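seq:
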Amino acid sequence: MHKPHIALEDTFNMEQVKLSMLFTDIVLTGDYPHPSLGKKEIKYPGYHELAYLHPNVFTPDESVLDILRVKQGEKYAIVRFVAWKASHDIGHSDIFYENKIKLVNTLSKHLRVFISSEAEIPEELKKFQINVPAEQMHNALAFAQLFVGESGTMASECACLGVPSVYLDNKGRGYTDDLEKFYGLVFNYNETIKDQLAAIKKAEELALKQNTKEEYLPKREKFLADKIDVSAFLIWFVENYPEFVKETRAKDFDFGRFK
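struct:
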């Protein structure tokens, strides 16, 4: 229809990107290391997840604890298994059956465990399956002691909330690598047996911590100080499109106005 199109990209499955780049005018990406998308790309200091979990737009609601039947101060972990059916999941394998059991059994010795899963989970783990409305999931993540799983998005969401994450993925994500290297909010592991066991060990270490919030909230504050309220930036960019595209590309462009 010959209408301008603004894309947002964070997965960098290059086969998909090459197709979409034909039909987009601008592609907005975070400023973490990733493959260059050429002259159409504009980088901003942030991640997709800060569009809806920046403290300017999201305040965790403690009423989710009643839904979870978690007592005030009771520690819990959220474990996420994905179905690996997305096009960018080709060639990946999930956490092995026996390691899913080992992970949950190990964590449940120290805290409550809730499993969120796209795929069918082992029968013996179904009692751990989380039962909250979808719109409450971010509230559930916000009050967790830790997150362990195969979802890069949820790992990044937890970072935005100051919750440490153990993330398993062979290819990783530029943003989860960034969150580990500069902020210590994510711990990245691949899908090998060795790394699955190492991830379980790390998860248990986090489960045993007594002052997780005190340790990780300062890391979150450092992260937020470096990043922007992505919703504020997107609203400004769209409302002023295409007038300020050239200005936004400039190296001295002040993204600080969107804090």
